[in-house]
Amino acid sequence: MTGGAIEVLNPWPMAVTQKPIPREFGDHDRIGIGIGLTGENSGVYYTRISTDANGHCLQRLDPPKIPEYFTHAQIAEFEKHEGWEYESNYFAPKTVEMKMKAGGGFATAFGGASIRSRP
């Protein structure tokens, strides 16, 4: 092996950056970012429009209902902090029907008890 190059094969890959596990949102879920916090863009609720390999397109529920795109990494970061709310099936017909039967009206539908996912 004189004068030849030595080829080194490394079976171990270089350090891999850990990607967040993508959060899945349903068509009837309500997502809250910055809920209860103060400042610009605090306390915004969203619903999912679409999802792709890189993130989610979420639509604000407040007028003018602007769509915004968040990467999976951004969503994972929001989940770690105060102000994150995720309410599965919040707008599902069965959920709304149960809220109406429990007392109905706007106050119950938007301020009643619900199951919330927090970190």
Structure description:
This protein has helices at residues 72-79, 93-101, 105-111; strands spanning 30-33, 44-51, 55-60, 67-71, 85-87. By secondary structure, the protein is an alpha+beta fold. Strands 4-3-2-1-5 form a 5-stranded antiparallel β-sheet, with helices on one face. A hairpin with a 6-residue loop joins strand 3 and strand 4 (67-71). It is elongated and about 85 Å long. Residues 106-116 have low confidence and may be disordered.
Proportion of residues in helical segments: 10-25%
- How many E-type strands? 5
* Overall geometry: elongated
Rg = 22 Å
Largest beta-sheet characterization? 5 strands, antiparallel
Which labels suit this protein?
elongated, alpha+beta, 5-stranded antiparallel sheet, 119 residues, 20% helix
